[in-house]
Design a protein that fits this description.
By secondary structure, the chain is of the alpha+beta class. Helices cover 32% and strands 17% of the residues. The longest helix has 16 residues.
Length: 126
C-alpha cells in the first residue's frame, strides 16, 4: 500500500527557501516563462511522473488551456505571494489496511520524517 506524507513548516515558522523562490519568481519576466505555440504539455518535465511520452498535438489542435499559457496571457509574476516549500515522502507499506499503515507512518513521522517542533505533517493514502 502506498502512503504519502506531506510535510510543511508550521505557519509561524519563517520559510527561508519559500522566500528565496518567491524572490526569484518576481525577478522572472514574461519572456522567461513563455512557451512556444504548440509545445505546451500538461505537467511539464517536472510536473508529471508518467512514463508515457507526451502527445504531440498539431498546433491547430492545441487546447484552450494550452493557448491560455502563451505569452501575453500569463498573469504577472508579482501576482505570486506567500510561497511555502514542503516535501512529499512516499512509502510502500505492507499492510492490510490504511489505518494499520497510518499508525506505523505516524510513528515514523514523530521520530524521523518530520520535526514536530517546526513542521506539520499530513498522512494520506497514495
Amino acid at each position: 500500500m502506498k502512503v504519502q506524507v506531506l510535510i510543511r513548516l508550521k505557519s509561524g515558522v519563517l520559510d527561508v527557501q519559500g522566500k528565496a523562490v518567491e524572490q526569484c519568481i518576481h525577478e522572472l519576466s514574461q519572456a522567461d516563462l513563455s512557451v512556444p505555440d504548440g509545445s505546451a504539455e500538461s505537467g511539464g518535465a517536472h510536473g508529471s511522473d508518467s512514463k508515457a511520452p507526451a502527445s504531440k498535438a498539431p498546433a491547430s489542435k492545441v487546447s484552450a488551456e494550452a493557448k491560455s499559457t502563451t505569452p501575453g496571457k500569463l498573469l504577472p509574476t508579482d501576482s505570486v505571494s506567500q510561497v511555502r516549500i514542503g516535501k512529499l515522502v512516499e512509502l510502500q507499506v505492507k499492510s492490510s489496511s490504511f489505518e494499520q499503515a497510518k499508525v506505523l507512518v505516524e510513528a515514523l513521522c514523530k521520530k524521523l520524517l518530520a520535526n514536530p517542533i517546526i513542521e506539520n505533517y499530513e498522512i494520506r493514502q497514495g
